[in-house]
């Protein structure tokens, strides 16, 4: 009786265990179905991603190096009609012969062996023979139980064209900058030199390394330093350029270099990040101007030291310049003289001299293009009438045309009186 009870218990336990196993098996089958469903969903998502990708994508078998799977984007990239035209082909079929060795190394080492997933750029040939530039990245995968590589391709031909155009533009710009006779420099907002060309180095005797990183004011003449600093700070603060400012630089050997420049702001995204300037050496011009100034001063001293009155008259009888003796003789200031016609200053008349009264030296010189010597009676300041001997000659302008007449008046009043007294005696 006891054995029978134990047998029933065993049967119940076995039944319970069997039910448990059936439940576990059913659960496993459900999990398997869910896994299979998830796998199918994943495969569907992957295929949708693969086939709908904007970039061209291929799967390459590692052993045969043949394309075993491709999407429509790669078909369009290389100009084929259908997937059948590209599946089974080798990636090398689309690469120029001189670049194939490099691509083989990239695929074998970087993708299949090391799985580096690096972006590479190379040239490719389309079906119709056009050369394009592509950007590619590959990763090692397993496809249908075999080692393979998944590679994506993007057409970067337009980007390469723009980059090449930019490179050529930069080369042209650099050639112009380095070949310019003018010095060219750039500095940051703190005034530290960030760029100089060869001409500027030669202009002030420093090497490029000696200039870069230094503050630009280190090379200014001490008397110009604060003025230039204030000018640059004001122009940058007001976002306006400076037009042809003249200042002095100090050469490495210590002598002064006269220059003028037009500093302009350097902008990035509408923000001022520094300034640059084209700097022209005008030392020769300044020296010539200084020599001319000294020469003019020398001539002025000579002319103003003359005992005779001198005036320069234009073709309209307008007085353009006079010397000190003229002011003394005719009792006018320099400002008054240059506002008068010659006949107004010397004859107190409102019309030019006539042949009836006395020939006009200005008219005579302009007609004959030669010097003239005449005798006139002028109305001087406090002295009243004075007799003067006039010597007039044409004064040519830059193009060789007579533009002015120089008239020298020698007062012979006293001489005439002495002669008259002598004759009377």
Helices and strands, with pairings:
Elements lengths: L1 H51 L3 E6 L5 E4 L1 H7 L18 H17 L5 E7 L5 E13 L2 E10 L1 H23 L3 E6 L4 E4 L1 H7 L3 H4 L10 H16 L7 E6 L5 E6 L2 E5 L2 E11 L1 H22 L4 E6 L4 E4 L1 H7 L3 H4 L4 H6 L13 H8 L3 E8 L5 E12 L5 E10 L1 H12 L1
Antiparallel strand pairs: 1-2, 1-5, 3-4, 4-5, 6-7, 6-11, 8-9, 9-11, 10-11, 12-13, 12-16, 14-15, 15-16
Short description:
The protein has 13 helices and 16 strands. It has 425 residues and is α+β, with helices and mostly antiparallel strands.
Oligomer: single chain
Distance between the termini: 198 Å
CATH architecture of the largest domain: 2-Layer Sandwich
- CA-based shape: rod-shaped
Reading off the top of the CATH hierarchy, the class of the largest domain is best stated as Alpha Beta
What's the name of the CATH homologous superfamily of the largest domain? PAS domain
Helix content percent band:
40-55%
Q: Low-confidence parts, pLDDT < 50 over ≥5 residues?
A: 1-5
Mean pLDDT: 87
Q: Helix- and strand-based class?
A: alpha+beta
Count of individual helical segments: 13
């Amino acid at each position: 009786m006891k054995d029978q009870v134990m047998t029933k218990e065993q049967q119940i336990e076995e039944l319970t265990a069997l039910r448990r196993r059936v439940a576990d098996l059913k659960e496993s089958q459900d999990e398997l179905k869910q896994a299979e469903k998830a796998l199918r969903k994943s495969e569907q998502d992957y295929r949708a991603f693969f086939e709908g990708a904007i970039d061209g994508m291929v799967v390459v078998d590692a052993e045969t190096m043949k394309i075993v799977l491709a999407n429509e984007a790669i078909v369009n990239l290389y100009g084929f009609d259908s997937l059948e035209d590209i599946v089974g082909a080798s990636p090398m079929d689309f690469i120029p012969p001189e670049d194939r060795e490099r691509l083989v190394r990239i695929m074998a080492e970087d993708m299949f062996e090391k799985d580096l997933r690096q972006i590479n750029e190379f040239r490719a040939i389309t079906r119709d023979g056009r050369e394009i530039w592509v950007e590619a990245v590959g990763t090692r995968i397993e496809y249908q139980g075999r080692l393979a590589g998944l590679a994506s391709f993007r057409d970067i031909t337009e980007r390469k064209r723009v980059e090449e155009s930019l490179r050529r533009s930069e080369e042209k710009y650099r050639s112009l900058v380095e070949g310019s006779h003018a010095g060219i420099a750039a500095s940051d907002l703190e005034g530290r030199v960030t760029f100089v060309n060869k001409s500027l180095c030669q202009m002030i005797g420093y090497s490029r390394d000696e200039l870069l990183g230094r503050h630009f004011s280190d090379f200014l003449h001490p008397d110009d330093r604060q003025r230039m600093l204030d000018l640059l700070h004001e122009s940058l603060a007001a976002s306006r350029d400076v037009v042809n400012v003249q200042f002095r630089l100090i050469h490495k050997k210590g002598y002064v270099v006269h220059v003028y420049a037009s500093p302009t702001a350097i902008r990035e995204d509408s923000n001022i990040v520094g300034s640059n300037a084209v700097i022209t050496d005008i030392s020769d011009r300044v020296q010539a101007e200084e020599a001319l100034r000294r020469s003019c001063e020398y001539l002025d001293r000579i002319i103003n030291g003359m005992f005779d009155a001198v005036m320069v008259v234009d073709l309209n009888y307008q007085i353009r310049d006079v010397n000190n003796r003229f002011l003394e003789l005719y009792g006018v200031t320099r400002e008054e003289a240059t506002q008068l016609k010659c006949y107004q200053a010397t004859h107190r008349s409102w019309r030019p001299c006539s042949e009836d009264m006395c020939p006009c030296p200005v008219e005579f010189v302009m007609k004959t293009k030669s010097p003239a010597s005449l005798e006139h009676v002028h109305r001087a300041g406090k002295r009243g009438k004075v007799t003067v001997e006039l010597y007039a000659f044409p004064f040519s302008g830059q193009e060789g045309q007579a533009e002015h007449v120089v008239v020298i008046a020698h007062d012979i009043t006293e001489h005439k009186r002495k002669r008259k007294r002598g004759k009377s005696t």
